[in-house]
């Protein structure tokens, strides 16, 4: 290796180490969630109730407690096109409208069985927007829940390398010797 190339690489690595802390400190939880502004506060509350209906609290935390609604909002805002975002917002309005039509109250005020009935009705509807909304929200909710910190640290066993290597194991001869 030539001396100039080595000095250039060394200077670049030193410079990046000095700049890295300033760059990393600019990221915060609040900054990351500012991009998801596609919902109003009432829609965020409605979405929290919907994800809680999909994965309710039992002996483990529910989706609402793990803030999966924020994950769903962030995923739809950042990873999906305008058509999917439109389906998402129309589906939220449809869920509230269906709950009002069937039970005379908003989705958030319904009983858990009534909420589940509204979502099941939307999943089986002929309306492509309602069916697409339920599929979208259900898939992202499950993805967010299974990849949440709680599930990954408390419910799943992480193995760095699947399988085992036992380097020192007694070997017996096939003939029994």
UniProtKB/TrEMBL annotation:
Pfam family, one: Gluconate_2-dh3
EC number(s) per entry: 1.-.-.-
Recorded superkingdom: Bacteria
Keywords: Oxidoreductase, Signal
GO molecular function per UniProt: oxidoreductase activity
N-terminal signal peptide: 1-24
Key word 4Fe-4S present: no
Broadest EC class assigned to this enzyme: oxidoreductase
Statement: the UniProt record of this protein carries the keyword Signal: yes
InterPro entries tied to this protein: Gluconate_2DH_su3 (IPR027056)
Name of the protein in question: Gluconate 2-dehydrogenase subunit 3 family protein
């Amino acid at each position: 290796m030539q001396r100039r190339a080595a000095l250039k690489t060394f200077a670049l690595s030193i410079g990046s180490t000095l700049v890295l802390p300033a760059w990393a400190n600019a990221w915060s939880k609040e900054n990351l969630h500012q991009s998801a502004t596609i919902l109003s506060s009432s829609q965020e509350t409605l979405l929290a109730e919907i994800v809680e209906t999909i994965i309710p609290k039992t002996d483990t935390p529910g989706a609402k407690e793990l803030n999966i609604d924020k994950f769903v909002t962030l995923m739809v805002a950042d990873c999906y096109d305008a058509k999917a975002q439109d389906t998402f917002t129309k589906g939220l309005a449809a869920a509230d409208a269906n709950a009002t039509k069937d039970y005379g109250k908003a989705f958030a005020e319904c009983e858990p069985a009534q909420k589940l009935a509204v979502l099941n009705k939307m999943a089986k509807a002929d309306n492509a927007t309602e069916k697409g909304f339920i599929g979208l929200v259900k898939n992202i909710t499950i993805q967010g829940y299974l990849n949440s910190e709680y599930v990954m640290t408390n419910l799943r066993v992480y193995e760095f390398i699947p399988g085992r290597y036992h380097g020192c194991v007694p070997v017996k001869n096939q003939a029994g010797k």
